[in-house]
Amino acid sequence: MENQHIDALKCDDNSRTKELYGRYRDEFFAFSRKYNIDKTDCADIYQEAFIAIRKHAISGKLHSVNSSFKTYLFGIGKHLIYNKLKDYATKSSYNPKLHNADSEYDVIQVEDEKELTEEQRLLQHHFNRLGKSCQQMLTLSFYRGLTNEEIAKQYGYESEAVVRSHKSRCLKTLKDLIKTSPR
Amino acid sequence: MTINETLIEKYFSKQLSEVELVEFKNQYKTDQDFKAEVDFLKNIQYVSEAEDDAQFKSQLGSYESEFKDNQKSKSPRRLKPMIAVAALLLITLGITFLLNKDLNTEQLFNTYFEPSKNVSAPIVRSESNDELLNNAFIAYSAAEYNEAIPLFENAFENTKNSELLFYEGNALLALDKTEDAIAVFKKHLFYTDALRHRTHWYLALAYIKMEELDKANQELKIYIDSGESFKKKEAQLLLKKLE
């Protein structure tokens, strides 16, 4: 897969991500309509596919993918379209022929969005009370899986030690917020 | 009692060797404190992932609005059906907005807010008369807002340079001290300096954060009418989302 596209998603490159979004948008909408997807659902599905492909970029999964960015994106989209068709089928009769509307793209399975537990929701509430730089620091460390050294290099901190102490302050603040909050 | 932080860091950055992985699993099984810390951090992982996704989704939403707007202006013959679709979408968005008011205002704020750059004073690391001001801007540019705020306050007291209120407000907003930020921005509006108009943009964002959407709406209109080009497109887009 095109490395520059993976990097754009991984590194939050706004202008390149926007360019990618625009590049395949109209074709994807036309593709969705082959499956009788409502016009109003096309954008939602396209965005969900983008979120999923970005998750795969962040987790490192895309580096071992041989297909092009577009094929992979449309493969995820196809999976989401099938889910939407199942949704429609609960409201009207289901047309199995729609599953064969296009054979150009193989379905790429993606995990359904995980619901947060009650404990995680509470944590989310306190997480949102942290300053922006702490939220970013914890996201980079624990979701993005960057090492202190990588964070220092990529985000302009003086050294790995500065990152370490900033992160540890953020964690302490978060723990204090949890401790002092009335339950 | 001390927790092996390196082991934990390597776990989250997926860099544990086989030997370290065995050690990690062993500690997770036998050391209660270690397990509690790892579980806590795993929860942060889930939560930050959810927040990161939500932010990205809202970013995609803003691309979508732009592309839709562009298409609308390019195809006048299809104007009527497009208006109908847009109206339907707006209604849907409006309902979703009302249902998820908390989440969306937070998301909107996070999408549009970034502290203003220093556009007033060059930072000169010197012993000149303006040392206080210099230090304030150095701290501000390094995102050390806690340090910057009292320095701006003092510098404003000494110099009565009203632009400093603008930066103080930004620093407060970045620290989630939204009510304080609003008070400082309102004070700034008593002056007529070069940054006065921009304060309306930041006031709008602060009101969004406080879920005072009528006031946010009003501030955005004032800002757009002011003719400032800074963040103008964003202001127009945001206003559309609120209306």
UniProtKB/TrEMBL annotation, chain A:
All copies of domain RNA polymerase sigma-70 region, residue ranges: 20-87, 135-175
Domain of life, source organism: Bacteria
GO biological process: DNA-templated transcription initiation
GO molecular function, a single term: DNA binding
Keywords annotated in UniProt: DNA-binding, Sigma factor, Transcription, Transcription regulation
InterPro entries from the UniProt entry: RNA_pol_sigma-70-like (IPR039425), RNA_pol_sigma-70_dom (IPR014284), RNA_pol_sigma70_r2 (IPR007627), RNA_pol_sigma70_r4 (IPR007630), RNA_pol_sigma_r2 (IPR013325), RNA_pol_sigma_r3/r4-like (IPR013324), WH-like_DNA-bd_sf (IPR036388)
Family under the similarity heading: Belongs to the sigma-70 factor family. ECF subfamily.
Name listed for the protein in its UniProt record: Sigma-70 family RNA polymerase sigma factor
Organism: Gelidibacter gilvus
UniProtKB/TrEMBL annotation, chain B:
Organism: Gelidibacter gilvus
Keywords, in A-Z order: Membrane, Transmembrane, Transmembrane helix
This protein's record includes keyword Transmembrane helix: yes
Organism ancestry: Bacteria, Pseudomonadati, Bacteroidota, Flavobacteriia, Flavobacteriales
TM spans (from-to): 82-99
Protein name stated in the entry: Tetratricopeptide repeat protein
SUPFAM superfamilies referenced in this protein's UniProt entry, alphabetically: TPR-like (SSF48452)
